[in-house]
Amino acid sequence: MEERDREELFSKRIRAGKRTYFFDVKSTRSNDYYITITESRRYQKDDGFGYEKHKMFLYKEDFGKFMEGLQEAVDYVKTDLLPDVDFSQFDREDEERAEYKPVEVKDKDDDDGSFGSDLKWE
User: Fold this and answer.
1) How many angstroms separate the CA atoms of 107 and 104, rounded?
2) Per-residue pLDDT, 102
3) Any idea of the CA torsion for 20, 24, 28, 32, to the nearest 10 degrees?
């Protein structure tokens, strides 16, 4: 089954300079859930710009271990490697850098028999 057949339920986009990160919650046909994390980087080409994408799949059984490992790595950088940096300067709450768009999910008993809806970036 190709990834485009998966049901997308939630998406959050974070812009960070030339990179954009996408956190997407998806559903399988059997109503199991997982997260895809995508890094998209813009680069200069001869005829304009191109995009390089890297994708990672995070399954529910790994959520806790992943969060624990990520938090440990971030804490190490903040406390051991860069203790004098004020990281709050990077926490801008503006819609250009971070936005999310929840996707309305249809009830399983809808007349057309479908579940969920497609997400389109605005």
Assistant:
1) 10
2) 58
3) 140
Give the mean pLDDT per block of 10 residues along the chain (122 residues). Answer: 66 91 93 95 89 95 97 97 90 52 52 43 45
CATH at 68 = 3.10.450.700
Contact 69, 58 (CB under 8 A): no
List the domain range (segments joined by +) for residue 71: 3-102
Answer yes or no: pTM beyond 0.70. Answer: no
For residues 95 and 101, is the Cβ–Cβ distance under 8 A? Answer: no
**Considering only CA atoms, which of 52, 44, 48, 46 is closest in space to residue 20?**
52
Give the DSSP letter of residue 69.
H
pLDDT, position 116: 41
Task: Report yes or no on 59 lying in a domain.
Answer: yes
Query: Measured between alpha carbons, how far is 44 from 21 in angstroms, rounded to an integer?
Result: 19
Q: Please say whether the beta carbons of 38 and 26 come within 8 A.
A: no
In sequence order, what are the residues at sequence separation of 6 or more whose Cβ sits closer than 8 angstroms to the Cβ of residue 116?
A: 7, 8, 9, 27, 103, 105, 106
Number of domains, the chain: 1
